[in-house]
Design brief:
Largest interface: A-B, 43 and 34 residues
CATH topology of the largest domain in chain A: Rossmann fold
Low-confidence stretches of chain B: none
Strand content of chain B: 5-15%
Distance between the termini of chain A: 55 Å
Radius of gyration of chain A: 22 Å
Number of domains of chain A: 2
Helix content of chain B: over 70%
Largest sheet of chain A: 6 strands, mixed
Shape of chain A: globular
Distance between the termini of chain B: 39 Å
Oligomer: heterodimer
Radius of gyration of chain B: 25 Å
Low-confidence stretches of chain A: none
Structural class of chain B: mainly alpha
Helix content of chain A: 40-55%
Largest sheet of chain B: 3 strands, antiparallel
Strand order of the largest sheet of chain A: 6-7-8-3-9-10
Number of helices of chain B: 9
CATH superfamily of the largest domain in chain A: P-loop containing nucleotide triphosphate hydrolases
Chain lengths: 291, 258
């Protein structure tokens, strides 16, 4: 299957000499939940700006559905219609003091007539749970509310791929969970979701595929159950391993769980493993247990 | 200014059709300036004042305080009109002889000062009605309707939004500085303030780049297009506006118009 987005040997150096990307190769499968992990300054945001044509690669190329993207105005509009970015700081995304004006900006730019644009904006606002905020000015909103308005502004354009740059940064755990639920919902609708974060516990149970980015290079990729077992990769990225993986390794290492047990995919699977091990232990004859 | 902005969004008239509010403002201010008798000016003030306090539910203390600001400037301004400076005779209520000149307050001067005062305050009260009931986001819609060039409107949208980002950023920097004793005396105060201005400038520059990127990623094509919220015209409100304007005109007719 053709990947929805592919990059080949992508390089980019900022005017001040910072080599932000040093040959990035990605193959993002359609409909997947993809996490890009890396410490601050690893190049995540720069990479994302390439995926919808804001930055133009200095070397290598970006492909959308197998075709190399063009940088003429018409091509860029077509690309940005399909690939949306939710920026990390909502204040840099919200340009208007009116929530409705801001959310309807994208759909109107796509050339939708007034009524359809309004309908698209309202639908996006109900999906992100901000319908009641329509008439509140952006400067009276809390950070979490602003975040949801900025997500609605991208959803209203109904892109097939949505990129979230650190969607849970600065949010309280409750709001972070709500945003992650929204991402799951969007994924169920068939959208490809890409997010960047350094919260390994958040990503571990969520992602289908993971990239580890460090210093402008991909140093590891794969399914989370494989990537997060590679201590060397995690150390190079200054990341810790997820609690679920640590617990699993501890339990198998100390013999409480069978050594050949596969790594659990999420917290529930880990708990299930522990429960069945406990049941198996209780089912043993008393003499054996006491021994 | 921020207080006015707060009430513009939270008043009870914020949900009514912006066109109605603008219509009331435009007709009233025109009548106030065109039909200028003290009676019409007073009627304008009472009507706009009661619209703000009774209909929009802005606390009267706030409204009074806001009216006092231009009011006090006006008092100083019209004092110069009240005083007459003449060589000849005059109908002086109170006068001082300065050599061959007489300066003082004539009945005529006083009347024209009072007229001017009431007329200006009447016009100011109309502006306050608009400012306190109509948020800037709704004004944008009215300006579009009035075919104001889109460049001006877009500038207004962006500037208005950035005022708050700038204030918030400046506030945060100020807190960070004062928590490290940045303003303990005048010397450090000046130093901290200059650094605040500098970092505010740098941050604004960066933020403007980010905003531009974010706009581009949502297919920005050089024009800020968006949909306005929809409001319904209310016949009741239109009738109320017509009644208010009739009262003002009636005041003018009774007190010797035409």
């Amino acid at each position: 299957m053709t990947p929805v987005i592919e990059t080949r040997e992508l390089t980019y150096t900022y005017p001040d000499g910072t080599r932000a990307l040093r040959g990035i190769n990605l193959k993002l499968a359609a409909g997947q939940k993809i996490a890009v992990l890396g410490s601050n300054g690893a190049g995540k945001s720069t990479l994302f700006l390439h995926l919808n044509g804001i930055l133009r690669p200095q070397g290598g190329s970006v492909l959308f559905l197998g075709c190399e993207i063009g940088y003429r105005q018409r091509d860029l509009l077509e690309l940005r219609k399909n690939v949306g970015i939710v920026f990390q700081d909502p204040d840099s995304q919200l340009f208007s003091a009116s929530v409705l004006q801001d959310v309807s900006f994208g759909p109107v730019n796509l050339g939708l007539p007034h009524n359809s644009a309004l309908a698209a904006a309202k639908e996006a606002m109900s999906q992100t749970g901000i319908t009641g905020l329509e008439n509140r000015p952006t400067h009276f909103l809390s950070f979490g509310q602003k975040k949801r308005v900025s997500i609605a502004g991208v959803l209203a354009m109904e892109p097939a791929v949505i990129i979230f740059d650190e969607p849970t940064a600065c949010l309280d755990p409750g709001m972070a969970l709500k945003i992650m639920d929204l991402l799951d919902e969007l994924s169920r609708q068939g959208k490809t979701i890409i997010l960047s974060t350094h919260d390994v516990d958040l990503v571990y149970g969520w992602a289908d595929y993971t990239y580890l980015l460090q210093n402008g290079e991909i140093i590891g990729e794969g399914e989370p159950q494989k990537v997060f077992l590679r201590r060397d990769w995690l150390e190079r990225c200054h990341l810790k391993s997820p609690m679920v993986v640590e617990t699993h390794l501890e339990l198998t290492g100390s013999g409480l769980l069978p050594v050949n047990q596969p790594v659990p995919r999420n917290k529930e699977e880990l708990f299930q493993n522990i429960r069945s091990a406990a049941l198996a232990f209780k089912a043993l004859p008393k003499t054996v247990r006491n021994w | 200014m921020l207080q006015i902005d707060y009430y513009a969004y939270s008043n009870k008239l914020s949900g009514t059709h912006p066109g109605e509010k603008f219509l009331f403002f435009a007709i009233t201010v025109t009548l106030c300036l065109a039909l200028s008798t003290p009676a019409t000016s007073l009627a304008v003030m009472i009507l706009t004042g009661s619209a703000v306090i009774l209909l929009a539910r802005v606390p009267w203390q706030v409204y009074l305080k806001l009216m006092l600001i231009p009011g006090s400037f006006l008092v100083v301004g019209v004092l110069t009109i009240a005083f007459t400076f003449t060589r000849g005779e005059g109908d002086f209520v109170w006068a001082v002889q300065l050599g061959s000149f007489t300066t003082g307050v004539t009945t005529e001067g006083m009347v024209s000062a009072v007229r001017m005062f009431l007329r200006s305050l009447g016009a100011v009260s109309c502006l306050y009605f608009l400012a306190l009931t109509t948020p800037v986001t709704q004004m944008v819609g009215i300006l579009r309707l009035l075919r104001v060039p889109s460049l001006m409107i877009e500038l207004m949208v962006l500037i208005y939004r950035f005022i708050f980002i700038l204030l918030e950023t400046a506030g945060r920097i100020y807190t960070a500085q004062s928590s490290r004793l940045g303003y303990r005396n005048i010397r450090t105060g000046f130093q901290s303030f200059s650094r605040l201005l500098l970092s505010l400038f740098v941050k604004s520059y960066r933020q403007s780049q980010d905003v531009y990127d974010a706009l581009l990623s949502r297919c920005y094509n050089g024009r800020l297009n968006f949909v306005e919220a929809e409001y319904r015209w209310s016949w009741g409100n239109l009738a109320l506006i017509a009644a208010a304007e009739s009262v003002i005109t009636a005041c003018w007719l009774i007190t010797g118009g035409i």
